[in-house]
Amino acid sequence: MDDDNQCINSDELEIEVFSRQNVKSKSIGGVLKSERQISVELLDELGINYIQGGLSAIDFIDVEIIVVDDYGMFEADKVAFMHLIEKGKKLVFLEFPEGNYKLDDSTITVTNCGMLPLHFASVKTGHSLVEDYEKNDIRFWYDKKVDYITPPLLERTFVSQGFVPVVTSGNINSEGQWDDALAIGEKEVGKGKVYVCQLKLAGRIEGNPTAEALAKRLLGLF
C-alpha cells in the first residue's frame, strides 16, 4: 500500500486442501521379503498391517494384497501365486528393473526412460483409480527424506499386451521411435487383479496427498 492506502502490488496463491482417506481397518498386506525394501517402505508409510513371507505362496493365503518388488522371488513359486490371484487376491509389483518379465500370457517389457528419468506422468486414461485426478497431480512430488522436491518419479516405463493403462508416459520403443508407455497398468486374472507400478510411490506418501490417495487406491485400501 502507498501513503494514500492504494494497493501497489498484490499476490494470490491458490491452495488446494485434500481430505485424508482412511484405510480399511481390517486391511492386511503381504510382502515378499526382499533386499530392495520398497514394498516394506510403502506399506509402513501407509500404516498398513502386513506380514513378510518367504518364497512360498502359502504364506499369503490369509492376506488380501500381495506386494512384490523382486520378481525373482515371486517367480520361485509363480504358479501358486497366480492361483491365489485367480481366486481373487490382488498382486502389486513395484518398480521393476529393466528387463522382460513373464506373467500369465503377458510379457512385461520394462525399459529405462530413453532420455532422462521423468518428474511427471499422465493421468489422461479414464481409469477409475485416477478419473478425478487433474493434469499436474503426478508432478514434482515432495521428498520427505531431503525436505524438498526431488526428481525422478519415473525411471522406467513398461509395455505389455493385456494391461489396461492406469497412468501413462512415453518412451522409445523397440524400433527407436517415441511411443506411448505405461507407468501403471492393470490386468485382470480370474477374479483377481495384477498391477505393475513403475511410479515411485515409496518415500513420497507424506506431503503428497495425490501420491497417498493413488497408493491407497492401487492397493484397494478404501
List descriptors.
222 residues, alpha/beta, Rossmann fold, 3-stranded antiparallel sheet, 4 helices, 12 strands, 15% helix, globular
What does this structure look like?
The protein is α/β, with parallel strands linked by helices. It has one domain: Class I glutamine amidotransferase (GATase) domain (Rossmann fold), CATH 3.40.50.880. 15% of the residues lie in helices and 30% in strands. It is built from four helices and twelve strands. It has a seven-stranded mixed sheet with strand order 2-1-3-4-12-11-10, with helices on both faces. The protein has a three-stranded antiparallel sheet with strand order 5-6-9, with no helix packed on it. The longest helix is centred in the last third of the chain and has 10 residues, at 209-218. The chain starts with 27 loop residues before the first strand and ends with a helix.
